[in-house]
């Protein structure tokens, strides 16, 4: 599938949004590196291949839709109970406050490059705070688009999860990733 100019709808039926965490602290061997997926989100991409500056991307994620998909490393396997506890922690404690801040948004301010190698700079809003983020992306000949951005949680007032008096904690930097399997044209005017 070749990319063509147009307005495209993004969401879980055509793409995945992942957050990958790492561990820090003296007890890092006990914890897990997590893969968390946003399961309820939507977005729109306006592509102008010959004029990337006229292109744009916007995405809205429901903060309560973050699901733990995988936990690697650690001294023992991640259980279903562990997953449920992590998801509760994400929603309530000093992390995302999903009741007060039900969405995370990204709005591009600049798109540069080609469909094969591009950068999207924009404002990421988490917990009511907006800061610039640059997303790096690559496209393949079969139409698959992948990209990533590194985000420092504390910039948005998120205190990385810690346990055992701080001996085990999530690293402040997390990697946000996306994979678009196919682009779905938006119906009617955007």
TrEMBL record:
Q: Check the record and name the InterPro entries matching this protein.
A: Lipid/polyisoprenoid-bd_YceI (IPR007372), TTHA0802/YceI-like_sf (IPR036761)
Which Gene3D superfamilies does the record cross-reference, listed alphabetically? Lipid/polyisoprenoid-binding, YceI-like
Q: Which residues form the Lipid/polyisoprenoid-binding YceI-like domain?
A: 7-183
Q: Which Pfam families match?
A: YceI
**Which SMART domains does the entry link to?**
YceI
**Similarity comment text for this entry:** Belongs to the UPF0312 family.
- Protein name listed in UniProt: Polyisoprenoid-binding protein YceI
